Amino acid sequence: MKTDIQIAQETTMEPIVSVAEKLDIQADELELYGKYKAKISDEYRERIKENENGKLILVTAINPTPAGEGKTTITVGLGEAFAKLNKKAVIALREPSLGPCFGIKGGAAGGGYAQVVPMEDLNLHFTGDFHAITSANNLLAALLDNHIQQGNELNIDTRQIVWKRCLDMNDRVLRNVVVGLGNKTDGFVREDHFVITVATEIMAVLCLADSMEDLKERLSRMIVAYDYSGNPVTAGQLKAVGAMAALLKDAIKPNMIQTLEHTPALVHGGPFANIAHGCNSVIATKTALKMADYVITEAGFGADLGAEKFFDIKCRAAGLKPDAVVLVATIRALKYNGGVAKADLNTENLEALKSGIRNLEKHIENIQIYGVPVVVTLNAFVSDTDAEIAFVKEFVEAKGCEFALAKVWEKGGEGGIELAKKVLNTLETKESYYKPLYESELPIREKIETIAKKIYGAGSVSYTGAALKQIEKIEAMGFGNFPVCMAKNQYSLSDDPTKLGRPEGFDINIREVYVSAGAGFVVALTGTIMTMPGLSKTPAAYGIDVENGQITGLF
Prior knowledge:
Structural class: alpha/beta
Largest sheet: 12 strands, mixed
Oligomer: single chain
């Protein structure tokens, strides 16, 4: 059986100029990065700004498992299927991070015959957006430490520096470091920290800004430290905004590539959904809505993370109104949630399926809270049995959802036609009554507890003493009306990754809370979630190589 990268490398891509022509984009409205990648110009976005918006479809999933779900694969395959039905559709995805690429996950461009290409470029350096974000973040860190070294005019308390350096790589030893060692001219000795680039506030700012002016305003509001009186010190006060904006000038523009079947795809921004808000950029989504009749976007990890943040952070900030949700599951993943070992997932097991399907049930109910119609799709595996598929179909339809079997990994767009037709029928016959989960005016603790109890199924929320003091300070500074970005493990509805299925009545522990004033949300860290991941014992990097000029081992 061919690997994803083999399938991708055997595909004959169309020049991106030809792909863009399908959306009436002229060659001089693209900024080319070789033959198969381009950025959408500001001039094009200005030209189409009065166009009517297309329909917005979110693809999300159950909690991820080692068995695989294929959310991005379904997103890509659904876009290809719309094209086969002669519908004008665009896919809007996030850019992959190098951390998971060389860590556990490998590539993130879809799979089988439902991929975006050039796959190797996308998974590695692409158009340099992440490098620009990393550079802007670390420029601000350098300016901050230099300000302290050069007299500290802003009276920054070096014990209250909150801005962290970053790297787009899983590197556990950088979580806690000491900087400034050496001579007096080498800086002030203090403890420092690194986060992965996709968890930075600049990534969130880039993904939530809707223009360069908005980007600069958000950058200026970012809090980097507190002074000796406890007042926030911002990037604007450090005079860092102009230089950061210069580094991000091109990174803010959406990237266009194509699927294996030459359907256009905008791929832009890449915040993780477990430690950030997990959605592609507002600019890319809004541009796509003006370009096409149907926009298919995805949000990271399970619906408890990516979809919740899509609804409560991205849609709220950008004024978006989603029209439908596609919820992805696999029979293998449902059986895994029912307690079956990974080695035994290919064997029919209806009892385990009945137990594990409660994870899917909770995600369906959560999306229905937001008032958006749901289509559930099973990403098909050859090991699925007729009895198992029939059970899931009956269960889903009893919950008031459309159901479709998707075979896009095997057949590309052709394998997604059943799903595409169900989505179209849902768009035509069911109204979306989207509303956020909570009102902005609620106190921060009430927002946290609303998410924990209504979305996760928690019975209670506990806070460390430090977290309670942080919430009090954030509200005193005037940020209490911000939405909450929960940082939680992705494997369970709870903050314990071992609790599979549909755990209920558990306690969610909030250990730290901080404000991302530029992004416009409050981050609550739960359990043992890390903002700088580490590598596994056998990282995916071991299998990646270059042979005869071609990259191998990405998957």
